[in-house]
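Usage example:
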Amino acid sequence: MKKEVTGAQALMLSLIEEGVDTIFGYPGGAIIPVYDALYDFRDKVNHILARHEQGATHAAQGYARVSGKVGVSLVTSGPAATNAITGIADALLDSTPLVVIAGQVGTSLLGTDAFQEIDVVGITQPITKWSYQIRHAKDITWAVARAFYIARNGRPGPVMLDFTKSAQNEMVEFDYKPCTFIRSYLPYPEIRENQIDKAAQLINEAKKPYALVGQGVILANAEKELIDFLEKADIPAASTLLGLSAMPSDFRLNKGFLGMHGNVAPNMKTNECDVLIAIGMRFDDRVTGDLNTYAKQAKIIHMDIDQSEIGKNVPVDAPILGSVKESLPALTAKINSAKHTDWIDSFGEYDKQEYDAVIRNEVYRTEGELTMGEVVNKITEATKNKAVVVTDVGQNQMIAARYFKYTETRSVVTSGGLGTMGFGIPAALGAKVGAPDRTVCLFAGDGGFQMTMQELGTIMQENLGVKIILLDNRFLGMVRQWQELFFDERYSFTHMKNPDFVAIAKSYNIDSRLVTKREELDDAIADMLKDDKPYVLVVEVEQKGMVYPMVPAGSCVTNIIM
Amino acid sequence: METKLYTITVFSENTVGVLNQITIIFTRRGLNIETLSVSPSALPGIHKFTITLFTTPDMVEKVVNQIDKRVDILKAYYNTDEDLVFQELALYKLATEKVLELGSVEYFIRKYNIRVLEISNDCTVFLKAGHYAETQSLFEELSEKVGVLQFIRSGRIAITRSKVERLSDMLEEMQKIQEKQNGNRKV
Ligand SMILES: Cc1ncc(C[n+]2csc(CCOP(=O)(O)OP(=O)(O)O)c2C)c(N)n1
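Running the assembly step on the lines above writes:
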């Protein structure tokens, strides 16, 4: 006879069947039975108590992004579920596999405005891949199996399970069957030979082929397939923000970072190439700028697993639907070996312009105030380009994306699609849990740091060796930059009077140091990296630094301010 | 760009909240649904939605892709009127004494091919099946000649001219692909 267990126990057993060993969560009334069941599974499941449910979801995201596993977050009903929303929305836009389980009032109270009842399914349907309310214990195994299947397969994304308290308490026979098939959902569309042939022909005829690499490559574990493809036909490539680290920074064909604050050559070349090959990226407006002037001269090949992305923003000449894990090798087999030396070398002219106009002054300054760029550069060097970089949002994020370097994949954790300030600290601690053997460096601004700095408590409690570099410019820097450029320097509410961040870190028993001068920087970085303990390095950088180059929002990608 | 009337057909699992999943896609893009009708399809457990809206070819394509992407949706596609045989139903409630004053209803029955569903002291109810323009013109003529107490028109229902509904074939195909893929992955 099968074992009878409570619904709460059935959930725990189901999570273990799915290989879950880490949960980021926060308890409360409507989820207490699950927490009670969890108590008996402490040897199998590492539960990390966040300080806010937003933090729990971002931490699960950070964990998922570096490990490739599904991040799991467990919260109670009502305000806890609404607190989790930001992380869920962030995971949807950045295709992060996440299962969020929230408590819900008992079924007899549904729809009555009971204490801490909200319509979780209704609220989360627009921001999840799937959202389901578990009303009876007999549905638990089915729902959990399906949730993990949906979150991790195809284009990954967040799934919400709204778990009624009555179902948590009901008794049920536990019998787990993993989900292997959903008749209404085909996660991996079959690769179509004719699509491959058409794209191969375009590439074989191209004189100036150019590839744009997105996170799809990382999500499909297709980094090697990408390199093989690019090398065979000698195709230069650039990354979107989320595609960073899919190729090592020093890879010969890696030409850098695309988009609003990307490198000059990658943006300019978009409008010079003759065939543009988009690989697991979605032509976000921060990459394309004005669509009416975007790559009009080029034939466009778009490889994506999500049919709804193809043609959504940019008209496509040759779509290739399917996972790039399969479509890249199929395409590589059909393309001719080629050399495009002159075309590739032509990127160099723009690189030089960018170096002279921006990089020298941002990264290699020898006098005046400290810049964000030199801090990022020193830290990437000190970690031998092997660290995971996590960012918050704003100037700190763009500078980190521009100047951090990578040798390994899954080395960038940043909120790209939603641009969530406050993502940094919790995502970084989640990343450290997901990649305990790697150095995890977070770059945050003084604004974003203060949105979730209570998570220092989580870092303290779990003793997570996250290296936090707070780039303090006493401004909401990125907004200030827009005000300086486009709003007549009217700095409307972007100045911040800040607390003593070192004292805050120390109050959490986290080592911390303030750097205000260039001469102190190397020593402080060495101090930060000397062991695997948490650290907050506060660096006072110039107040009115700018992130250049910049393609103004909605402008042509070649209209670059430097 | 020129807008025109599109008919979107959606097959979904019969689960709670599917309609919301579909409508939020229209809401996000600021699109107005013209008509909507939902009912169980020929296949048990599968519901069929017929949605019409005025929009551009580019937009309808994107919306359908976004609907189709939802996990609980089996299939979504769109057609224009040329591809479809379609129908709407309309009911007209009239005051019986006004109808009697007309002397005869033969005219309406012949001209509009209506059915009379009810005649009582209180009211008379006509039913007409047809395209929007037809049900509308009856409404206008009745309003003028008799006065219409209540009027209701259903959403459009439609079937494609070209082929039979191959949803069951499609489902079988999906299953085959996924079984094959699962087999491959186990290796
Ligand atoms: C939750 C949230 N609120 C507001 C914004 C808008 N925003 C984008 S960047 C930015 C400034 C960030 O300032 P800070 O954290 O100090 O970083 P800096 O740009 O100075 O590096 C703001 C307010 C946002 N992205 N997210």
